[in-house]
Structures are given as C-alpha cells and as structure tokens.
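$ ./design --mode recover --in tokens.txt
reading tokens...
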C-alpha cells in the first residue's frame, strides 16, 4: 500500500469535523505527511546506510576495527544528548520552525560527512548530523498523531511504523549499491535531494502551531548529557587505553558516576525538571522505556556487526551484504502490513512476549553459523528477526502511550527516542568491544593448538622456502584470524539471545488498560 493511498484512505475514514478537530490542520495533509515521513525516513536511513560502507570508510579514513564504529556511535550519541531538548524547543519555537530547521541542518551535515577527509572530521560531522536529526523522529510522530482524529490514529501509527521501516529495508541496499558503484561518500550525498524535497513540502503545508513559554532545566540537561557522553567515551576508548589502567578512563568513570548521581536527585526534586514527573509515575511508560532501551541495544548491535561479518568472513560485496540484511526490514514491514490491523485486538503483553521470543530464536539461529555456509540461513534468520521486531514495536508503543495524557506526548516520544538511541549507542560500542576482545583471546587459544602436524611445511626448514615460507605462515595466521573472528561474532549473538530472554519477565510489571477507541 503506497503512502499517498494510505493517507487518503485515512482521510476518507475521518470522523466529522464537529466530532473532533485535530490539533494540526493542513491545507493538504497528504503532502504534509509525505514530507514528514520522508524526513523521518531520511534520519532512520542514516542509522543503517553507513553500516555496509564501514569497511571501505575504514581504509579511506585511516581507522581501525574498533575506532571505525565511532562513525555510528557519534551519530547515535549526539541524537541521544539533544533529544531531551525536544519538548522545550517545540513549546518555545513551535513544531513548524523545529521541523524546518532540523531538515535543513541535517541536509547540510550530510554534505559535510560526504567531504570528510579524516576520522576526526567524520566523527565531528556525524555528531552535527545526529544533533540536527534527533528531533525528526519524535516530531514526525507528534505531527502524525496531532493531524489525525482518535479514530484515525491506529491507521496513522501503522503508516508511521511503515515509514520507520524504510530505513532498515532500503538503508543497507542503497548503501551497498552506492559504495559498490560510486563511493562510500555517496551514502551521505544521497540525502541532498530528499532533504530539499522535505523542506519544500513542509514549508508549504506544515502549519504553525501555538507556542508557550516554558522554563528549561539546563542543569538537568547538562547532567544527563555529561553522564551519557562519559559512559559512551568509556566504551569507545576503553579497549584502546586498556580500560581502568588508564587515567583517562578513570576520569570518564568518575564523571559518569558523579553526574549521574546528581542528575537523579536533581530531576526528582527540581521544581521544573527536564522531563515532567508525571511521565515516571506512569508504570507502563516506565517499563516501556526499558523495552525501548533493549530494542535499540539489540537491533543496532546486529546491524553494526553484520556488515563486517558478511564482507570480511563470507566475502560478499557491499551490495550483496546489503541485500542479505534487507530481509529484516522486509519481514517487519510485511508482518505489520498483514497483522497490524489485528494487533490491537490482542493483549499487548502477549504480542511483545511473542516478538521477543522470535527475536531470541533468530539470534539463536545465528549462533549456529559457520565460516562456509550458503545464503539460506542468513536470509531465514533475517526474516524471522524482522517478524519478531514487528511484534515488538507496536506493542511497546501501545504499552507506553496508552495511559499517558496527550500533553505529555512530545516529552514522552523524545524520552523514548533518547532511551532507544542510548541503547543503540551502548549496544554498538559494547558489541564492538567484545568482538575485538574475543578475537584476541580466541586467536591466542587457537594459535596455541597449531602444531607442526597441522602446517603443510617443515617449520624447522622455514628459511629454506624463502618467501614461500613467509607466505605460508601468513596463510596459517589468516585462517586462525578467520576462525577467531567467527567465534567472536557467535559469542556476541549468544549475548543478544540472552538479552531478549531476560527482558520477558518485565512484562509482569505492565498493567492492563482500557483500549483506545
């Protein structure tokens, strides 16, 4: 179902204006929502489009296996740091001004990423891109909900979710195609036409919304930003600096603990806290935040690990790797399209438990992968994972927002995206750190079992072989590296399986609520 036909269908089923008038009324809602969804999809696209290009970016920017992931974590971290400001900025400036500014700055930052000449420049520009794009997803969700009536919202949320899925589906494919046929820089240049189109549509059809004065809890925001940034720096720099043997890592840890401790007391006792206290008094929303964190941690970790596995272990090209990663998004989109209308009739807790079990099963399937393997198991695990994701996204939204008053919607969506981005950033860093550490440990253990009988030449007469002997040793070391890397990937998949299973008992804390009309 196309976006325009779906939106027109939603408009046809609207309640009479006398019954309910949406908070946002546009002279052409279809084009307004197309511009909104395209902007949000552009942001989601950039969370995955760069993944398949990482091996090429590493060589071009002079990065290592553990530092190249900063290209991903800097983007997600910058989004997480700026997200708490969404509610205050929308109240002070209005949705229209915020949306237009975010789209424009995101497009400019994308062009800067394309011309970056070093890892430091790339990380800086990706942070700018994350800061600019952080507001696109919560603002898009707010516009979608506020431009529809109560009866239309289930269908509108389905459309919004389909827009979110365009990133996981098209990101790896587009990124692989551009990297194969042009350059990795084009994964950022591609945002230029999309950004211009979004800006024009929103300029023409997104109306102004009322603004109001609201105090900004700058102290709370700074404390949260320091805590999140310090934790991320520990994960990004820890392996390189030998963790707490380095004074730099100890400093980051002290900053994270002290700022986090003060932030807890400040946010709970401030007269005008960063987030309304009513959000945390809602038990469903609080549990929903935990699931959002977990979902970001698991999904983005997998999306960050797979390109390296598919290209370096299995030898696929970037485009082939992107095609093999696409079934996750395809399975999710197909499941939401087919089963989405029926999900509202089933207890959200049951759906979420089922989705987590499916995701855990797909991760368990990935632990059985071997170095020499056809494409079938990769596609099957991806499809099953996509199906599991479809049964987690919508139930989490139902659990989190069904009991919240409408006035908290922008703050709630920004906080939810903050937790999801924080989980993504921590998950990517933790998975990369564990991957590098396990590769070193596995290499040492496997290398210790390489004996004379396993080497196809006489080690005592190695010098007699000349350069052929050195080539033979390099081949043996390459095989050991390959085996060590494969085991390290499998260990990460085991950890993700366990994370999905551990989260299921949290559903006992979710209370039942009356379903919305």
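writing sequence...
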């Amino acid at each position: 179902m196309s976006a325009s036909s779906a939106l027109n269908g939603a408009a046809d089923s609207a309640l009479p204006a006398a019954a309910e008038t949406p908070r946002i009324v546009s002279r052409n809602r279809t084009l307004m929502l197309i511009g909104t969804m395209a902007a949000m999809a552009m942001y989601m696209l950039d969370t995955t489009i760069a993944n398949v290009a990482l091996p090429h970016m590493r060589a071009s920017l002079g990065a290592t296996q553990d530092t190249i992931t900063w290209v991903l974590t800097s983007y997600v971290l910058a989004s997480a740091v700026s997200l708490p400001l969404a509610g205050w900025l929308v109240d002070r400036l209005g949705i229209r001004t915020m949306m237009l500014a975010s789209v424009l700055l995101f497009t400019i930052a994308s062009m800067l990423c394309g011309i970056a000449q070093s890892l430091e420049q790339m990380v800086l520009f990706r942070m700018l891109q994350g800061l600019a794009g952080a507001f696109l997803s919560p603002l898009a969700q707010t516009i979608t909900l506020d431009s529809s009536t109560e009866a239309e919202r289930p269908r509108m949320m389905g459309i919004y979710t389909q827009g979110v899925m365009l990133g996981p589906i098209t990101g790896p494919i587009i990124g692989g195609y551009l990297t194969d046929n042009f350059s990795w820089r084009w994964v950022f240049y591609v945002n230029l036409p999309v950004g211009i189109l979004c800006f024009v549509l929103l300029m023409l059809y997104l109306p102004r919304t009322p603004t109001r004065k609201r105090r900004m809890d700058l102290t709370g925001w700074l404390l949260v930003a320091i805590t999140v940034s310090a934790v991320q720096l520990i994960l990004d720099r820890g392996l390189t600096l030998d963790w707490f043997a380095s004074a730099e890592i100890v400093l980051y840890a002290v900053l994270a603990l002290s700022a986090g401790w003060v932030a807890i007391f400040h946010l709970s006792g401030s007269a005008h806290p960063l987030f309304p206290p009513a959000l945390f008094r809602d038990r469903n929303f609080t549990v929903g935040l935990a699931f959002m964190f977990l979902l970001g941690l698991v999904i983005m970790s997998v999306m960050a690990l797979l390109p390296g596995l598919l290209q370096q272990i299995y030898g696929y090209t970037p485009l082939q790797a992107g095609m093999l990663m696409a079934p996750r998004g395809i399975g999710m989109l197909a499941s939401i399209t087919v089963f989405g209308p029926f999900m509202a009739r089933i207890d959200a807790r049951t759906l979420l438990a089922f989705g987590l079990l499916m995701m855990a099963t797909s991760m368990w399937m990935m632990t059985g992968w071997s170095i020499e393997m056809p494409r079938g198991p990769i596609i099957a695990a991806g499809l099953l994972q996509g199906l599991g994701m479809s049964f987690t996204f919508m139930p989490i939204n139902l659990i989190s927002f069904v009991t919240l008053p409408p006035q908290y919607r922008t703050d709630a969506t920004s906080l939810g995206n903050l937790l999801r981005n924080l989980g993504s950033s921590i998950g990517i860093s933790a998975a990369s750190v564990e991957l590098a550490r396990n590769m070193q440990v596995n290499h040492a253990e496997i290398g210790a079992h390489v004996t004379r009988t396993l080497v196809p030449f006489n080690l005592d007469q190695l010098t007699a072989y000349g350069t052929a002997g050195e080539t033979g040793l390099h081949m043996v070391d390459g095989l050991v590296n390959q085996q060590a890397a494969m085991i390290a990937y499998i260990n990460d998949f085991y950890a993700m399986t366990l994370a999905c299973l551990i989260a299921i008992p949290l559903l006992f804390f979710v209370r039942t609520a009356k379903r919305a009309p």
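exit 0
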